[in-house]
Amino acid sequence: MSIETILLAVGSEDEKRTERLAAEATSVAKPTGATVVLAHVFDDDEFDEVRSNLGVDSESAGSTPDAVAKRHTTTRTISKALTEAGVDHAVRGAVGDHADEIVELAEDIDADRVVVGGRHRSPTGKAVFGSVAQEVILSAPCPVTFVREEPTESKRRVAP
After folding, report:
1. Is the pLDDT of residue 89 over 60?
2. How far is CA 36 from CA 21, 60, 88, 128, 148, in A?
3. pTM (2 decimals)?
């Protein structure tokens, strides 16, 4: 199976993982010549807040999810890294349930791979609060690569 389209899903919590997410997408896209669709999914409140922070009126042409995603800091940082690496990419935005929108977008663009970020969570944390990445892994129409947040220096375990 050749890889032609990669969906790289990001959210506001991915600011700490931008380098790792861009590197992972590049490592798959560059050798295959795949296009990366960089998608930022917002929930309703976040979308309104980001749009307000950007000074975008809800009635203007720049208020669409795609337009807001293109201007979001996390998306711009990753987009810049992909451009510098010579990876063809597009930016998409969506508003709704994070996992549902990622899976729907993967289906819509016929993605061959989905790349998502996340942080390490305890089994109890996953059960109580759910996990967008876990839901995407279980529901995506294609293989999913999970990019975990690097542990902070204070959390790293050093072998004796």
Report:
1. yes
2. 12, 27, 6, 33, 19
3. 0.85
